[in-house]
UniProtKB/TrEMBL annotation:
This is DNA-binding protein. It comes from the Bacteria. GO terms for molecular function: DNA binding. Residues 3-52 form the Helix-turn-helix domain. It comes from Nocardioides marmoriginsengisoli. InterPro entries: DNA-bd_dom_put_sf (IPR009061), HTH_17 (IPR041657). Gene3D superfamilies: 1.10.1660.10. Pfam families: HTH_17. Keywords: DNA-binding.
Length: 79
């Protein structure tokens, strides 16, 4: 599954600016370079957030993922 920059930011518990900076530094690869809007594989976002964040952040991330998953369930979509 792919996610937008805003969705990646919510999942990772960071701002969209941070997600874009990860792309510029090569920490996070978009599905297709040059495509607009940028889209990312969910698994790649999760990997980068694990590499970058502290323990306190992990709690915030779990809460964001739960909210995001609840939204998917409400719309009938799956991750």
């Amino acid at each position: 599954m792919t996610v937008t920059t805003d969705e990646a930011a919510e999942i990772a518990g960071v701002s969209p600016v941070t997600v874009r900076s990860w792309v510029l530094r090569g920490d996070l690869e978009p599905v297709r370079r040059g495509a607009k809007p940028l889209r990312f594989h969910y698994e790649d976002v999760a990997r980068v957030q694990r590499e970058k964040r502290s323990g306190a952040w992990v709690t915030r991330h779990a809460e964001a993922v739960a909210r995001w998953d609840a939204g998917l369930i409400a719309t009938g979509m799956q991750r």
